[in-house]
Structures are given as C-alpha cells and as structure tokens.
C-alpha cells in the first residue's frame, strides 16, 4: 500500500480496490494447481510460483494504473497460494514419518524469522521515504524469489506413484467427509492467525489508547516465540496425542482473547499494557503449539496420489480466511471490544470442538506426536 501510494498518483481507495481484486481472483488458483502437483510433483509447480512472484514484484516498478497493479498483485497472490499448496506436499515427501511435526515447526520458525527480518529492513528503508528506496525494496523482493528458485533446484521432485489411492480426482476429495472436518478446523485456526496482523495492533493503539510501541512489542514477542521456541516446544510435546494438543492450542488462543478483553476494563494504561502483552504470549502459544500439528495432520490425512488436491483444498481455507478476516475483524472491532473478542473465543471453542472430532474420526489426528 505504501509503495503504490508513494510511486503512483492513485488514491488509497484505488490501490485498496486493486489489491482486494487481486486477492479474490487468486482464491481459485490453489485448488486449480492441486491436480498439477499430483501429476507432475510439487517442485515444478512451486518453481513456477517463484518465477510468477518474481515477475509480479518486478512489474511493480512500472505500474501506474489500477488494472496494472491488480495484474501484478494477482501474480504475487496466486504464487503465494500455490506455494502453500505445494509446501505441505514437499515437506511430507522429504520428511520421514515421525519427524514431520519437527520439520513443519522448524520451517515455520524460519519463515517467521524471515517475516521479522523483512519487516525490520523494510521499516528502516521506508523511513528514508525516497522513490529509489521504495524501488529497492521491490527489487530485493523480486530477487528473493529468484534466489528461492535457484535454491529449490537442489531439492528432488518426488512424484507419487500412480495407484489406487490416486483414483477419483476432485470428486473423491470433496466426498471425503473426514478430510472436510480437517479443512473446517484449518479455517478456524487460520482465522486466529490473522488476528495478529489485523485486530490486535488496532485494538491496542486505537481502542485502548496505548502507546504505539505496544503493537511493536506484540509483534516482537510473537516473532521471538515462534522463531526460537516452536522447535523446542514441538520436541517437548513428543508422545502426546495430536488432537489433544490442538485443543490446548485453541484454549491458548481463547485465553489470549479474554485477556485482551480484560485490558479494556482497566483504568491504568500501564496495567493494560501488561495484560495485552500477557494476552499476546498466550495467543502466540496457541500458534506455536497448533501450527506444526495442524500442518502434519492435514498432510498425513491425504492419500499419496491425491495429496496435491487435498492440501490445495486445505490451503483454500487459509485463503478464504485471509480474504474475509480484514472486513469481518474490522467490522467487529468497530462495534466494541466484547463483540470481537467474545466472537473469537467462540471461534476457538469451535476449533477445539473440531479438534476433538478429528481425534475420533481422523487417524492422523489420533497418532502421537513423533510417532510413526
């Protein structure tokens, strides 16, 4: 948003409309490539996504109209959706059973540290505010995807053998009621993930009137905990039943939401800051505990020959949450603290209920963490 406002003559509404249009048009892309992943393997599809995103960011250097922004942003949004559709397939193929939670946890930590580093460097660069600096940010983004393309060349493309478990195509995926419960759980989990970026900073600064650094402190806590503690915590959880750990994760989310609500009832800003930070810690524990387990259950619940389609459907839940969350959370936030946080507590309760259901009907959710 800042880049386009600084480098084009377009208004905030025009830029927002272009980015929203791109995000909505990218929703079907993940499911569309699921069949390609099953047929050709995840690597070539992922490599195409890397090139698409490099092209999209390079295009930012020359855009000036709303439709041009929408096209380039669509390349980036679609590439991101394809990445996450291929990501679980790649990890599952390369990681041995019993080690997948650790690998999903490690890669989640690395990705979160990447977000933090990128955000820090961008914040420093934007402080200069010149056109050249904005262009440099875009160029670095484009080069990062080209670098990812080169690095991925060393990763083998493990294609599933065509067999009985590949029969049925999308019809089989959509008729798999047990996996649809996995997707429903993913939707609840994803909604909670978007709370960090959309609701918490606005609530802390604009609603509670806390100092601006409070939002930064929340992000810092989240980044450090996910970046450095996720792998350790997954190791500590070894031997525990996956579905029960997911329930604990949703309980941590709900506790965080109730703490955010409690901060609205405090007269002292200093106490409110402390309660918000405690809420952020509890919220982040929910993310740390649930993230690797959610990814592992989704990946291992899919048959080898159709894993691309299955995980594409699961990723669609994340994309839908990302498309709906900004409007839904901002609307709830505008009505009051109780409305948003109690609604999100309800989402967590639903997520915990679905996790309990997974523990009864989905074999992958019944297994022990680290078990084969």
UniProtKB/TrEMBL annotation:
GO terms for cellular component: plasma membrane. GO terms for molecular function: transmembrane transporter activity. It is found in: Cell membrane. Signal peptide: none annotated. It is a multi-pass membrane protein. SUPFAM superfamilies: MFS general substrate transporter. Residues 1-363 form the Major facilitator superfamily (MFS) profile domain. Keywords: Cell membrane, Membrane, Transmembrane, Transmembrane helix, Transport. It holds the Pfam family MFS_1. This is MFS transporter. It comes from Streptomyces cyaneochromogenes.
């Amino acid at each position: 948003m800042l880049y386009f406002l600084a480098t084009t003559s377009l208004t905030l509404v025009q830029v927002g409309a272009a980015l929203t249009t791109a995000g909505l048009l990218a929703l079907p892309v993940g499911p569309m490539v699921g069949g390609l992943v099953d047929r050709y393997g995840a690597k070539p599809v992922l490599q195409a996504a890397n090139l698409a995103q490099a092209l999209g960011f390079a295009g930012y250097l020359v855009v000036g109209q709303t439709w041009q922004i929408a096209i380039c942003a669509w390349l980036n949004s679609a590439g991101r959706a394809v990445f996450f559709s291929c990501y679980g397939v790649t990890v599952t193929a390369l990681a041995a059973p019993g080690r997948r939670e650790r690998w999903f946890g490690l890669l989640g930590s690395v990705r979160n540290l990447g977000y933090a580093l990128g955000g820090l460097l961008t914040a420093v660069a934007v402080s200069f505010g010149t056109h050249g600096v904005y262009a440099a940010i875009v160029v670095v983004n484009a080069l990062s995807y080209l670098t990812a393309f080169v690095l991925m060349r060393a990763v083998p493309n493990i294609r599933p053998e065509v067999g009985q478990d590949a029969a049925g195509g999308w019809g089989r995926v959509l008729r798999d009621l047990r996996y649809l419960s996995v997707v429903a759980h993913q939707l609840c989990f994803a909604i909670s993930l978007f709370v960090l970026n959309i609701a918490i900073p606005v609530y802390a600064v604009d609603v509670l009137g806390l100092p601006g650094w409070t939002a930064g402190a929340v992000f810092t806590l989240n980044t450090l905990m996910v970046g450095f503690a996720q792998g350790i915590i997954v190791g500590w959880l070894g031997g525990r039943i996956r579905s029960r750990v997911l329930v604990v994760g949703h309980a941590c989310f709900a506790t965080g939401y109730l703490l955010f609500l409690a901060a609205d009832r405090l007269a002292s800003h200093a106490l409110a800051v402390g309660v918000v930070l405690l809420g952020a810690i509890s919220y982040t524990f929910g993310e740390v505990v649930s993230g690797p387990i959610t990814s592992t259950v989704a990946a291992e619940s899919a048959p080898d020959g159709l894993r691309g389609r299955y995980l594409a459907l699961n990723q669609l839940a994340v994309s839908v949450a990302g498309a709906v969350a900004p409007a839904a959370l901002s609307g709830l936030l505008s009505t009051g603290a109780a409305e948003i946080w109690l609604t999100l507590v309800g989402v967590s309760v639903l997520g915990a209920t679905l996790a309990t259901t997974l523990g009864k009907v989905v074999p992958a959710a019944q297994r022990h963490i680290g078990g084969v």
